[in-house]
Specification:
Elements: H1 2-40, E1 47-51, E2 54-60, H2 61-64, H3 74-80, H4 84-88, E3 94-100, H5 108-111, H6 118-135, E4 143-147, H7 160-166, E5 168-174
Parallel strand pairs: 3-4
Antiparallel strand pairs: 1-2, 2-5, 3-5
Length: about 180
């Protein structure tokens, strides 16, 4: 009986150590990607945060899109292309492009284009970012787009500054970091 318990405890320790090494390796890979991206972006272009098992890059929409629009500007492309070396090296990490807006209702010029809500606009913006990154060589099996509209604000929509912070694209890397 003691031999069985000893073998079980030995196996348990081995599993726990393997999990620690795997977790450490994943963290180190994400840390390396964090360092690479932090070097590529200036503080006024992106906010980069490394949390448990996730690396998140937040870009304000005024860097990427004209006001009330969803087509990427040439400057936006020059900002997004900085992500390509990091994202192109990924094979097991999932990349989620999330679009957000403020709570100002959609204008008539967008409604004429078939965009009737902030959810539609945020989805179009996220799709534009994904399409651009795919054209630059990012693996289509690891990347997805999602629009959240005015949900999940990071600031108050009662001020112009708060609304500007809420209009954003978040690029989240989730997984082992490779």
């Amino acid at each position: 009986m003691n031999k069985i318990i000893t073998k079980f405890l030995g196996l348990l320790v081995l599993v726990l150590l393997t999990a620690c090494v795997t977790t450490t390796s994943s963290y180190n890979a994400l840390q390396q990607q964090y360092d690479q991206l932090e070097g590529a972006f200036s503080a006024d272009q992106a906010k980069i945060v490394l949390l448990e098992g996730e690396l998140k890059v937040t870009l304000l929409d005024n860097l990427l899109f004209p006001e009330g629009g969803y087509k990427l500007s040439a400057f936006a492309q020059s900002v997004l292309v900085k992500l390509v070396p990091t994202l192109s090296a990924l094979h097991q990490t999932k990349v989620v492009i999330a679009g957000y807006t403020d709570n100002i209702p959609i204008g008539s010029h967008l409604k004429r284009q078939g965009i009737v809500s902030n959810l539609d606009l945020s989805s179009k913006r996220a799709d534009e970012v994904v399409d651009y990154l795919l054209k630059k060589g990012v693996d289509p099996t690891i990347i997805s787009a999602q629009g959240f509209g005015e949900n999940n604000p990071v600031a108050s929509n009662d001020t112009a500054d708060g609304r500007a912070q809420n209009r954003r694209i978040e690029i989240t890397l989730v997984g082992p970091g490779n």
